[in-house]
Structures are given as structure tokens and as C-alpha cells.
Design goal:
Strand order of the largest sheet: 5-4-1-6-7-8
Helix content: 40-55%
Shape: globular
Radius of gyration: 18 Å
Distance between the termini: 18 Å
Mean pLDDT: 96
Number of strands: 9
CATH topology: inorganic pyrophosphatase (n-terminal core)
Strand content: 5-15%
CATH superfamily: TON_0340
Largest sheet: 6 strands, parallel
Order of helices and strands: HHHEEEHEHEHEHHHEHHEHHEH
Length: 340
């Protein structure tokens, strides 16, 4: 049964403000294909007794000056922690070394340093020779049992011929295979790539192994097609909507997928949806644009983090004017409070 309030939250987050192309084809796009996932994702967290949520974030921008993690992702992960902890939901954050300092600073400033665990993922160098199962077992042992595993703007590997066949069926591929091999030749398959096509596999921990093997409910939040979770959508759908999407589309699916105009917005909306279902109003600081601005500035400085679009340290996300970016907070807060 549709919930108008949750539907409105999802719509607010799904606006393609950055013109990524997530809804280029009106009748079938990234937003329409996963629209029914948002409410169940919120309910799953809100209605699970003794929930423990693991949140993975961190996207490396090799073209940044300096090369660094981007502002989209860590800020949303921190927001989820700030929103879920007061609801009695345990939270653990997992990231690479290039985002650890930013998240640690944010947690300390928010008074969550002793309430939220911040775990470092194994470095790509440490993972050499490690099987996918061994990786998942090692991270899972450190993390402990979780009921939910969320990826917020987290890169995932591109498709392979095998994953394409699994999606479309070996007999249904047809001409799609020709298009696929044109966009994703063998050397670019199973690689984590930025929207600009840079291969960042050597810089990010292969945490998708954990998502592929966990028994927890998995939720992917992304805005471009190259993030963990986007494997729930077919390769050809991403290719048809996102410019260059065929070359970077992620093959790893999640139980639920939230496609947003900005990944942080997807995290904000998920937090709002959980609070709405729990019948709890947001704490005032969650809707305070000034608080979010201060946290963003702090994380940019301590990371450093860079705006993924601008490629430089900036108090902004995806090149969007800050006022426009933060306007969603008050709108979501109004829905949480009044359901209007």
C-alpha cells in the first residue's frame, strides 16, 4: 500500500538537480524502476527490533586537486548516524583511509564518537590475493552481526559478460552483447570507475564482496549508475538514461535501491522515512542548514574532501549551489512532523 508521505520524501530526493540523466527516458529510467523500493527500505529499518545498521561510504576522486574522497557520501552517512542513533538504532560506519579523518571529525563534533563505531576497510593492497569470501569474513568479523548494510555513494565494479547474462538471460542478450563489448571491453570489466571513466579499483577497498555475501538486508543509495546497488537495474537501462552510463554501470545489486539526484539526499530521505514510520519528529539540528554547512566545512577541511564535480575542496556537493542543496532538509522535516 502506497504511503503518500514516504512517496513525497522519495520524490524530493529523486529530483535530478545535477542533470545526471537518472530519468532521461520518461517511461523507463533509474527512478521509476526502483520507486517501489524506498518505502520498504524505510520500514525494514524502522520495524526491525534491535536493528544494527552498517553504513559504507567513500568515493575516490583521482582528478581532484588534491585527489581525495568526495563530499557526496560521507556527509549523508554521518546524517544517517545522527538521525538513527536517537531512535535507538545502532550504527557502524565503514570507509577507506581517505574518508576516515573526515568522518571521525564529524562524529566527534556531533557527540557521537562514543556511540558510533568507525571502522577502516582493508586497503586494496592488503586485499591482494584475498578471496572474496575471505574478505567478507574478515570485514564481517570486525563489524559483527548487522541487520542492515547500506552503501551511500559507494563505487562498485562494472559488469562482466557473466553478470550481463545473469541479468538478461543468455538467450536474450542478442545485440546487447555487441553494445556491451563496445562500451565495456574485457580490460574495463569488473572495475570500479568514476563517472568520468577513471579506474579507481586500486584505491578503494572491494567492499562489494561483503554486500554479495551478507545475510543482512542491503540498501544501495546512488545517483549515477556506478554505485553499489545499481546492479538491481539492467545494464541497458542505465546505458539508455545516463550519458556514458554503459561504461561505468555497477553490476552489484542490493535488496533495496534508492536512486537520488544527489546520494546524500537519498540518505536524508531514508533517515526521514525511518523517523516518520517510528512516529518520531526530527531533532532540530537535523533540519538546520547551518549545522549541515558547518559539518560539511569541517569534513572538507579534515579529510580533505572535494566536490566531485568541481574537483577541489569546496563547501558544496556535486557543484550544486549550497542553498539549493540544503533546501531539502526543511522540506523533509516538515513531512516528518506533519505528514503534509
Amino acid at each position: 500500500m502506497s504511503d503518500p508521505v514516504l512517496d513525497r520524501m522519495r520524490e524530493l530526493a529523486a529530483e535530478d538537480v545535477g542533470e545526471r540523466g537518472i530519468a532521461t527516458v520518461p517511461e523507463r529510467n533509474l527512478v521509476t524502476e526502483c520507486a517501489s523500493d524506498f518505502a520498504p527500505a524505510c520500514r525494514s529499518i524502522a520495524e526491525t527490533a534491535n536493528a544494527h545498521v552498517g553504513i559504507v561510504t567513500g568515493f575516490w576522486i583521482p582528478s581532484g586537486q588534491p585527489p581525495a574522497g568526495e563530499t557526496d557520501g560521507p556527509l549523508g552517512a554521518l546524517f544517517l548516524a545522527r538521525a538513527l542513533i536517537p531512535l535507538g538504532i545502532r550504527v557502524s560506519l565503514l570507509t577507506d583511509d581517505f574518508c576516515s579523518s573526515a568522518l571521525a571529525a564529524g562524529l566527534t563534533t556531533c557527540g557521537l564518537g562514543g556511540k558510533v563505531r568507525l571502522l577502516s576497510l582493508p586497503t586494496p593492497q592488503a586485499c591482494r590475493g584475498m578471496s572474496a569470501t575471505a574478505y567478507a569474513d574478515a570485514v564481517g568479523k570486525t563489524l559483527g552481526p548487522v541487520t542492515h548494510l547500506i552503501a551511500v555513494e559507494r563505487p562498485g565494479p562494472t559488469h562482466t559478460i557473466a553478470s550481463l547474462q545473469a541479468q538478461l538471460g543468455a538467450e536474450a542478450i542478442g545485440e546487447t552483447l555487441v553494445d556491451f563489448l563496445h562500451d565495456v571491453p574485457e580490460e574495463l570489466q569488473d572495475r570500479c570507475r568514476t563517472m568520468r571513466g577513471f579506474d579507481i579499483s586500486p584505491r578503494v577497498s572491494p567492499v562489494h564482496f561483503l554486500f554479495e555475501r551478507t545475510k543482512a538486508v542491503t540498501i544501495g543509495i546512488g545517483d549515477g549508475g556506478n554505485e553499489i546497488g545499481m546492479g538491481k537495474l539492467t545494464w541497458d537501462l542505465i546505458r539508455a538514461n545516463v550519458p556514458g552510463g554503459g561504461a561505468v554501470a555497477c553490476r552489484v545489486p542490493t535488496s533495496r535501491l534508492i536512486v537520488a539526484g544527489v546520494s546524500n539526499w537519498g540518505a536524508y530521505a531514508l533517515a526521514a522515512g525511518v523517523a516518520q514510520i517510528r512516529g518520531k519528529a526530527w531533532a532540530g539540528d537535523l533540519s538546520d542548514a547551518a549545522v549541515e554547512t558547518r559539518l560539511l566545512k569541517l569534513m572538507v577541511e579534515k579529510g580533505p574532501l572535494v566536490d566531485g564535480r568541481l574537483g577541489k575542496p569546496a563547501v558544496s556537493v556535486d557543484g550544486i549551489p549550497l542553498e539549493r542543496y540544503l533546501a531539502i532538509l526543511s522540506k523533509l522535516a516538515a513531512l516528518v512532523r506533519g505528514g503534509a
